[in-house]
Specification:
The complex is a heterodimer of chains A (about 300) and B (about 350).
Chain A (H helix, E strand, L loop, with lengths): L1 H28 L13 H11 L5 H13 L14 H36 L4 H15 L2 H19 L12 H31 L2 H8 L4 H13 L1 H16 L1 H7 L5 H11 L2 H29 L1 H5 L1
Chain B lengths: L4 E12 L2 E13 L4 E5 L6 H8 L8 E10 L2 E2 L5 E2 L2 E2 L5 E4 L3 H4 L6 H13 L3 H14 L5 H4 L9 H13 L5 E5 L7 H18 L2 E6 L2 H7 L2 E6 L2 E7 H6 L4 H8 L40 H5 L4 E5 L2 E3 L21 E3 L5
Parallel strand pairs in B: 3-10, 3-11, 8-9, 9-10
Antiparallel strand pairs in B: 1-2, 1-4, 4-5, 6-7, 11-12, 12-14, 13-14, 13-15
Classes of the chains: A mainly alpha (about 300), B alpha/beta (about 350).
Chain lengths: ~300, ~350
């Protein structure tokens, strides 16, 4: 298990390095730069910045300056926002996005696994039909529609109850997080439900479940100890990419619910060609996702002994 | 003396897209403690369905037991989970299956899988059940049982896994062990070891064994009594000597002739039984074996033969045994003196 962990982490570091290099090269091939636009800074600031980041030096040298700064954990200063370090932006806004994302993934994973197992156990009966109908909806309807519908029903609910059951937008308390996280996780939940259903159907008719029944194990215990653990494998496998799509896809939902997440700055930075912010957030997101995927792989190894021991 | 397990007139059907499959059409058999009953027959003849419907393992729906009874020590238990406070599956009746590789949970360590039976039926704590599991592994002759108990199925060979299955099945000292083709997936040397193990365990514990197989050499080695199944019915049953030396049913004879032998020499050829078993969606009105039988008579096409008693404990379902049948029945055992009328389902 140890050598497996170390190997995965080394692979992760190489991936992050690759992401950083690719971002750097891509940024330098984009025409124009933030310093040359008309509302940009005066000549002194421009010269200072160019000197600091070696923007007037050859590409290779710039690359080394950039990589060196990054190794020290310094992503630099925003080129378009006053007195803002990229590190500050990340430190302030990433926890918000991460909280939302992790909550959404938890919703998606728990809901998907439970509903998937339920549909498989009640295959071709009413609960199966109802859930599978909802799943098709969850997959085909985009998240901003659910976001708007969710807000609308919250407004109605609050009006009906006469007090605020759940806030419609904003950020701060747990009650602010529930609806955005649910909306954000909905698509993934639907996808995971389908995956879990097919995997569970396979497990239900497997020989080892028959063995468990032949041993006289009660149905509830067969479900928890024999079916769930084996059926959950494919779901865990896609959980890594699912975390990626949820955390990066959170921008729209963050916007609708006025959540001060990182997504907004990311998009703004791209629009304004804010080099340091783009590179900083991209590399940071990349590293975060690589870390999550490694975590998922380790969890997978913990659940499936064949991965752990081979 | 009442038999340990007595199954009578068992009828089982399956709903499928193609219609209703009549998998069992009146099956009777019994086993006594310490004895081994072998159920033989080709694929699809209903051997496994018979045992799995008795223990409630066939999926229902689509499966359905339409008639019949199964008694353990004279007490009816068909369709029940418990009998006299003891769970039937795992406690009273242990089961092992053909493919041990896929019959064990890949994500649970071997010891836990054996211990689970004891935790469920005996209420043992996990630690106690686990140490008992190690003893059981020792009993089925797995070396370094304590270390092996913490390993997972993928770290075991096929023969070892079948031993683990046996250890699991006998954990609660069942009075009956159902072995559903336990050695089909194994090579002959391992097969011999597993059969030896089953025999010695039977001697130690006095349990009855129902051995489902299509391998007549396994039958000859293990069985006290044999039931030959064809198309959802038992066509002949008797002691192992009855079946091998006094075969009464043409199908039993056909199986014997289709078996390779050491003594035959150049001119001994395997004689396969021509044709294939009948369509179980609509079983024939007469004898199911009629189409493939070289001794078929007119009556065989129209009427399913009743069960003829040939000797004490030797029965056959063939019109050739009818006392009034006058033609030559070369190679078949003698005619019956009595017959049991069929119980209508």
């Amino acid at each position: 298990m140890w050598s497996y962990t170390v190997k995965r982490i080394l692979q992760g570091i190489i991936t992050v390095w690759f992401i950083a290099t690719a971002t750097f090269l891509a940024m330098h091939n984009v025409p124009g730069d933030p310093l040359s636009s008309d509302r940009a800074t005066n000549e002194t600031i421009r010269a200072n910045l160019e000197a600091r980041y070696g923007l007037d030096k050859p590409l290779l040298e710039q690359y080394f300056v950039y990589m060196g700064n990054m190794m020290r954990g310094d992503f630099g200063i925003s080129f378009t926002q006053q007195n803002r370090e990229v590190n500050d932006i990340i430190r302030e806004h990433f926890p918000v996005s991460a909280t939302l994302g992790v909550l959404a993934v938890m919703f998606a994973a728990l809901g998907g696994i439970l509903m998937g197992a339920l549909t498989a156990l009640y295959r071709n009966r009413l609960p199966d039909y109802i859930i599978m109908f909802l799943v098709i909806m969850g997959i085909s309807v985009p998240s901003f529609v659910f976001a708007a519908l969710g807000q609308l029903s919250l407004v109605n609910l609050n009006a009906m109850m006469g007090f605020s059951v759940l806030p419609v937008a904003g950020w701060g308390t747990v009650s602010h997080m529930l609806l955005p996280a649910l909306v954000l996780g909905l698509g993934t939940m639907a996808y995971l439900t389908r995956l879990m259903r097919s995997s569970m159907l396979e497990v239900i008719s497997s020989d080892y479940v028959r063995t468990a029944r032949a041993k006289g194990v009660p149905a509830a215990r067969i479900f928890t100890r024999h079916q769930l653990r084996n059926a959950v494998m494919p779901v865990i496998t896609v959980l890594g990419p699912a975390i990626a799509s949820i955390t990066t896809g959170g921008f729209v939902v963050e916007l609708v619910f006025a959540v001060p997440g990182l997504g907004r700055y990311f998009v703004q930075a791209v629009q304004q060609l804010d080099y340091t912010v783009i590179m900083g957030t991209t590399v940071f997101y990349g590293a975060f996702l690589v870390f999550m995927v490694i975590l998922v792989d380790l969890v997978y190894g913990w659940i499936d002994p064949r991965v752990r021991l081979k | 003396m009442t038999a340990l397990l007595e199954v009578s007139n068992l009828h089982v059907e399956f709903d499928t897209y193609g219609g209703i499959v009549k998998a069992l059409r009146g099956v009777d058999f019994s086993v006594e403690s310490g004895q081994t009953l072998a159920i033989v027959g080709e694929s699809g003849s209903g051997k496994s369905v018979a045992m799995q419907s008795v223990t409630g393992l066939i999926p229902m729906p689509p499966g359905r037991i339409t008639a019949g009874s199964a008694k353990l020590r004279g007490k009816e238990f068909l369709g029940q989970r418990k009998l006299d406070g003891k769970t039937i599956c795992g406690d009273e009746i242990g089961m092992i299956f053909q493919d041990a590789m896929s019959s064990l949970n890949p994500t649970m360590c071997i010891g836990d899988q054996i211990a689970e039976t004891l935790e469920v039926h005996r209420g043992y704590s996990h630690a106690k059940a686990f140490s008992r599991a190690i003893e059981l592994l020792d009993m089925v002759r797995i070396p370094e049982a304590a270390r092996r108990a913490r390993q997972f199925p993928f770290e075991f060979s096929g023969g070892m896994l079948q031993r683990v299955m046996i250890a699991t099945a006998i954990a609660c000292k069942p009075s009956l062990l159902i072995a559903d083709e336990p050695t089909t997936a194994l090579d002959v040397t391992i097969q011999a070891q597993i059969l030896d193990l089953l025999q010695s365990l039977q001697k130690e514990t006095g349990m009855a064994i129902v051995l489902i197989t299509h391998d007549l050499s396994v039958v000859a080695r293990m069985a006290d009594r044999v039931a030959v199944m064809y198309a959802g019915q038992i066509v002949e049953s008797g002691s192992v000597e009855d079946i091998f030396y006094r075969s009464a049913h043409p199908y039993t004879l056909g199986l014997k002739l289709a078996m390779p032998s050491h003594s035959g020499g150049e001119d001994h050829r395997l004689r396969p039984i021509p044709g294939s078993p009948p369509d179980m969606f609509s079983p024939p009105a007469g004898c199911a074996y009629c189409e493939r039988c070289d001794r078929a008579m007119r009556v065989c096409q129209s009427d399913n033969p009743p069960i003829f008693t040939l000797d004490e404990g030797h029965f056959s379902r063939c019109w050739q045994q009818h006392p009034q049948h006058t033609g030559a029945s070369e190679g078949l055992y003698k005619k019956a003196t009595a017959h049991i009328d069929e119980v209508q389902a």
